TrEMBL record, chain A:
Superkingdom of the organism of origin: Bacteria
Upper classification of the organism: Bacteria, Pseudomonadati, Pseudomonadota, Gammaproteobacteria, Pseudomonadales
Gene behind the chain: mdcD
NCBIfam families the UniProt entry points to: malonate_beta (TIGR03133), PRK07189.1 (NF005530)
Keyword Plastid listed: no
Annotated protein name in UniProt: Biotin-independent malonate decarboxylase subunit beta
Species annotation: Pseudomonas asuensis
UniProtKB/TrEMBL annotation, chain B:
Gene3D superfamilies: 2-enoyl-CoA Hydratase, Chain A, domain 1 (3.90.226.10)
A Pfam family per the record: MdcE
Signal peptide range in chain numbering: none
Name of this protein: Biotin-independent malonate decarboxylase subunit gamma
Top-level taxon in the UniProt lineage: Bacteria
InterPro entries listed in its UniProt record: ClpP/crotonase-like_dom_sf, Malonate_gamma
Automatic annotation (TrEMBL), chain C:
Residues modified to O-(phosphoribosyl dephospho-coenzyme A)serine: 25
Name of the protein this chain belongs to: Malonate decarboxylase acyl carrier protein
Modifications the protein undergoes after translation, according to the UniProt entry: Covalently binds the prosthetic group of malonate decarboxylase.
Location(s) in or outside the cell: Cytoplasm
Keywords, comma-separated and alphabetical: Cytoplasm, Phosphoprotein
Length: 287, 266, 104
């Protein structure tokens, strides 16, 4: 079966590759890829280290429309180098967001959707990956002034490292049960802080703290959806219709500082503790 | 691990008579001062051995630091909202890493660091000159949260100044290499190196400065840094509020080429 | 990592181009583009060193059965088995026949 035929039959979003995901979300016939794979804009740094490159460096930039409105989608391919951000892929995302912001300054209401499947910086391009992520973050904050910036973390990779900070800057975050969202990957925490602190092989434990459902009930994301392409599509449309949020999550300094101040220093932490601490429902809440 | 005092040393050096703000986590040093005649808020993240979050006691940027930075920078934006002259924000950067821990992940440290990035980026967009002064380590998520949104980055030339995305042991583990292999590669691949010389070749720094005594700065050292900060403020005033100034180096030609192609095809 | 080049006699050049697969573990990415009439050129970048004979055999078997179209094929291989390579190549050729599978 061809990829196209599979796309038509399947409703799972997670099973789709980055290009198929972007195509599935844009209005039919409106998908147009920028710097597509045949341009072979590939990592200049991986071959120097004996690592095979991918023709699109693991990032698909597609322009098109959603409900007729100009939209750019940046989709990360999680299966290439763990969705890591190198110089080229990072510049594709940052550059696309910069141009979307520029569009808005010129009266064109271009919006952006980020499909995040990433472990963060590509360590083989370390400082250039980090720099690109800083530029992605800068561009999100800029574009967010004009239009909602929506990020979807579907899985299976999740969203980690500097890109989790980028996710935290978005106007709306949509996750599935398969999503994980956290700053530090489990292996890194185990390496830096020890296995008693964080056992990277204890999957239920990791999921209980950083999985999509927990992030939703603690108000750290906006929507929790099943792995279904049409439902994710509908949720994106809903978020766009809501317009910009009154106050982005990353601006709720006072609320979070207040909550962190209520935590007993020696209190052990688990999923329930965080749910109680960040319980939604009060007027200052993050939801 | 010896705690670095460089952040605090340079915070004190650049704000000799100012009174640090109260009501902040002890790991945040913040004060309002002047650079020459220019109003400035100087901000440092420093070690605090009593930090209520044990994983953030060595100068790491953790939950309180991320949200605290966001709050204090946001206050500057609000205070200067109706002023023509926006105070400069000077981030003194000596951050060994973000905080690695169970509590941190559980409580959403990514969101706390986003709080800091958000405020620094909005300050820059609002017209505040934002300058990052690297005096020690500038590592990974900690650097993203504290300094990387600056219009201009300045680093002191010193072997103790290091910039990277991850500590060596962890980077080796994640890339399935030994630390020796990693160091051998870093010697030939500029973005993988930890030292200032290689970092400077990426074009991300606006200026590098030599000082006589980085951990006990002389009056001449302090004056040189202060003058450089003032030049940076003037340079920012003449330029844009974005990060475009970082794209010029030959080691970033792919970053430029991608943007050129995107613009053509947009 | 090594780069290998292969050539085989081919038929006419098709219109359009196709991309299948990706550089994930045990997989490969295949880019198929129209080539010079009568000639199939393959450029293989693979993470597995010393595999030239294996690729040669695989291509020979495939293209002996049926004359391939004239294409320039680029392969980025991340340790795919011969079975996966064959599957991806067949998938790519099939997509080329389905007009509009990958157009800009």
């Amino acid at each position: 079966m061809t990829d196209t035929a599979r796309l038509l039959q399947s409703r799972s979003f997670i099973e789709l590759g980055a290009r198929q995901r972007a195509r599935a979300l844009l209005d039919q016939g409106s998908f147009r890829e920028l710097i597509g794979p045949f341009e072979r804009m590939m990592s200049p740094w991986l071959p120097k280290q004996g690592i095979v490159t991918q023709a699109d460096d693991g990032v698909v930039i597609a322009k098109g429309t959603i409900e007729g409105q100009p939209t750019v989608i940046a989709a990360i391919e999680g299966s290439f180098q763990g969705g890591s951000m190198g110089e080229v892929g990072g510049a594709k995302i940052a550059g696309a967001l910069e141009l979307a912001a520029e569009d808005n300054r010129n009266g064109i209401p271009t919006r952006a959707v980020l499909l995040l499947e990433t472990g963060g910086v590509r360590l083989q391009e370390a400082n250039l990956g980090l720099a690109a992520i800083a530029e992605i973050q800068a561009a999100i904050v800029d574009l967010r002034q004009y239009q909602p910036v929506i990020a979807v973390i579907a899985g299976p990779v999740g969203c980690f490292g500097g890109m989790s900070i980028a996710a935290g800057l978005c106007s709306y975050l949509i996750v599935t049960q398969e999503a994980r969202l956290g700053l530090n990957g489990p292996q890194v925490i185990e390496q830096e802080a020890g296995i008693e602190e964080y056992d990277s092989r204890d999957r239920p434990f990791i999921w209980s703290l950083t999985g999509g459902e927990q992030r939703h009930v603690t108000g750290l994301v906006d929507a929790y959806v099943p792995d279904d392409t049409e439902t994710i599509h509908a949720q994106i449309r809903t978020c766009f219709r809501q317009g910009k949020p009154a106050l982005e999550r990353s601006r709720r300094y006072a609320w979070f500082l207040d909550r962190l101040g209520r935590l007993e220093p020696e209190q052990p932490i688990d999923a329930v503790t965080v749910r109680d601490l960040y319980a939604a429902g009060d007027e200052g809440g993050v939801k | 691990m010896t705690l670095s005092t460089r952040g605090l040393i340079w915070f004190n050096a650049l704000s000799p008579n100012a009174k640090p703000f109260e009501g902040l986590p002890a790991s945040l040093k913040v004060c309002d001062t002047t650079l020459g005649s220019l109003p400035a808020r100087v901000i440092a993240v420093v070690p605090d051995e009593q930090n209520p979050f044990p994983r953030a006691r060595c100068g790491e940027v953790g939950l309180l630091e991320g949200w605290g930075l966001g709050r204090i920078i946001n206050e500057a934006i609000e205070a200067d909202r109706d002023h023509d002259t926006k105070r400069a924000l000077v981030a003194i950067i000596d951050v060994p890493s973000q905080a690695y821990g169970r509590r941190e992940e559980a409580l959403g440290i990514h969101q706390a660091l986003a709080g800091a990035v958000d405020a620094y980026a909005r300050a820059r967009l609002a017209g505040h000159p934002v300058i990052g002064l690297i005096v020690g380590k500038a590592m990974s998520g900690a650097f993203l949260a504290h300094g990387y949104q600056a219009n201009r980055l300045i680093a002191l030339r010193d072997p103790g100044v290091e910039v990277h995305a991850m500590g060596k042991a962890s980077a080796a583990r994640i890339t399935l290499r030994s630390v020796d292999e990693l160091e051998a590669l870093a010697a030939n691949i500029p973005p993988m190196a930890y030292d200032l010389h290689n970092y400077a070749s990426l074009g991300l720094l606006w200026e590098t400065l030599s000082v006589e005594r980085i951990e006990r700065p002389t009056e001449g050292d302090i004056n040189r840094v202060s003058e450089c900060l003032q030049q940076a403020v003037a340079d920012i005033a003449a330029g844009s509020h974005d990060l475009r100034g970082r794209l010029d180096a030959s080691n970033r030609s792919a970053s430029r080429q991608v943007r050129e192609k995107l613009l053509e095809q947009w | 990592m090594e780069t290998l080049k292969f050539e085989f006699p081919a038929g006419q050049s098709p219109r359009g181009r196709a991309l299948v697969g990706g550089v994930g573990s045990g997989d490969l990415e295949v880019l198929l583009e129209p080539g010079e009439a009568g000639m199939l050129r393959l450029n293989v970048v693979t993470s597995v060193n010393g595999s030239a004979a294996r690729w040669q055999n695989l291509f020979e078997r495939m293209f002996r059965e049926q004359t391939p179209p004239a294409l320039n094929i680029e392969i980025h291989d991340f340790g795919a088995t011969p079975g996966v390579v064959r599957l991806r190549l067949e998938q790519g050729l099939e997509e080329l026949q389905l007009e509009g599978a990958f157009h800009d």
